[in-house]
């Protein structure tokens, strides 16, 4: 499965720079960007247990303080899709983020 990360920038770079001399307009050039996506590998016994849970279509309960669900019911069938990424202050920084993608949803 191919995934794509789309970053939308502002017209200027003032939000990304702190400067003491504001006479010259800052310019930031992004030459290389790494998107690190961790892959979780489990041992075979745990993999079998997880497969049984998925086969039974059981719910997996997760503890949370606040829950936000973003669901796109009509994603176009194209190779590209852009969605907004929510930003927060350091006080609201999540410890864990769960992202799930689903195909062939059961009605």
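^ Assign residues to that structure.
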């Amino acid at each position: 499965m191919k995934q794509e990360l789309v970053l939308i920038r502002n017209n200027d770079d003032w939000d990304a720079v702190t400067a003491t001399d504001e006479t010259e307009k800052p310019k930031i050039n992004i030459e290389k960007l790494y998107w690190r996506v961790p892959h979780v590998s489990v041992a075979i016994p745990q993999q079998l247990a997880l497969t049984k849970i998925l086969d039974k279509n059981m719910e997996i309960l997760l503890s949370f303080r606040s829950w936000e669900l973003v669901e796109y019911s009509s994603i176009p069938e194209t190779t590209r899709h852009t969605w907004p990424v929510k930003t927060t202050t350091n006080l609201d920084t999540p410890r864990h983020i769960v992202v799930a993608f689903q195909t062939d949803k059961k009605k």
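Helices lie at 44-55.
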